[in-house]
Amino acid sequence: MRGFLASSIGVATAAVLALPLALPTPALAETAPVTPAGSTQSLPLVPLGPSATRTPGVPGMSASAGRPETQGLTTREVKTFSLVGVVWDDATTELHGRVQVRTRSTRTATWSDWQDVETHNGEHAADLDAAERGSRQIRGATAPLWVGESDAVEVRVQAEPGAPTTRAPSRLPTGMRIELVDPGADTPTTGSDGKNTGPDGDGKGEVAVPAMSMGTAEASAANVPHASLGANEITALDKADSTADAVFASDGELTAAAAPYIGPRPRIVTRRGWGADEGLRESGFVYTSTVKAAFVHHSASGNNYACKDAPAVLRSLYRYHVISNGWRDFGYNFAVDKCGTVYEGRAGGVSKAVLGAHTMGFNTNSMGVAVLGTFTSTAPPAAVVDSVARLTAWKLGLFGRDPRAKTTLTSGGGNLFPKGKNVSMNVISGHRDGFATQCPGTKLYGKLPTTRTTSAKLQGRP
């Protein structure tokens, strides 16, 4: 299922009309000067042979002649960046090998140790027949790695011994490049905090609406009436108010009696709140029919970030997904940092069934939640587990789903289930349940039974 597209003008206009009549017309400053946050440096990798300048003794990364093919980039001073990843031309080609980088910190002027980059990342993507794949060039890519503010880099990619030949005589994908992503500085916004909106707002008086580009207005409008136009966050609500808010937002399509199991809405930082440059993504939104399941992921971008830096991590991931990978927008529907803060992901409205690019084969009628970090051998903090439970209790509740139940999804094609196969899955599943992958990491995956129980309890289910 390809989903359906909602136009940007229609969504923004509908939201403006939904605002109280006492409000002045919001300023949709389409021609206002906008300085996009961040940048991406894309540097081609070249063959590397034995060299005295290369660091010896790294297991699996021999520089000896006759050993497996290696490409990379020798020590290079560059413009400031904070996140790295390797991309290549053909998204259907797998990288069989090892990718390592080391970077120089701008703060300490010291080099990091060699760090491994997760190479198996193709399963975090749009479905094989999704329109998203036909609208632009989709590239193969490693997982991104957050390294903090840096100004120099060295990278090497070594083919796995016995790896299949991708083109004679190479065993590595064609067109490999290192992507160096700068998230840009945090820019203070003047939007509201999202309070005094929804069913309890009295609609009286004049409310200031900040000037915005059309893209920003489009993304923000998709969250009206849960928050005001230009809000930096959508405030938390208790269970009773969450139900009332959902009924109000449904415009008569939902009643409290028909939806008794909506969990309390968590606080959600909007795209405007974390500084998304709405000029990067494709305009409009793509929706599916419903939300039957939530897939939990880890971003595999490492745990070396402070919670205050999470918005910068998100801006970097967003830019990597769109500019480097070629996706239409941020891949996941929501993100959660290691302190438990919930963030809006792909644009289209936090309460709506937005088609994402997170679980190849099962993006239709599902939602993707990415926990920022790597949880293969590191346990997720309790705040993360709690926030995932709260988010799923609310969002799945909007669509009448029991977090402890099973549901049936139809595969769009992948390495576990062929296209068209109906698959029974947990309503709250891990990425590895739909695709042969390590995601969301063994330690986070092990918390999903607790998450299901807590989520159902928050919904008030017996």
TrEMBL record:
Superkingdom of origin organism: Bacteria
Keywords, sorted A to Z: Signal
Key word Transmembrane present: no
Pfam families per the UniProt record, alphabetical: Amidase_2 (PF01510)
UniProt-annotated stretches for the region Disordered: 33-72, 180-206
Positions of the Peptidoglycan recognition protein family domain: 266-414
Signal peptide start and end residues: 1-29
Family: Belongs to the N-acetylmuramoyl-L-alanine amidase 2 family.
Name of the featured protein: Peptidoglycan recognition protein
Organism classification: Bacteria, Bacillati, Actinomycetota, Actinomycetes, Kitasatosporales
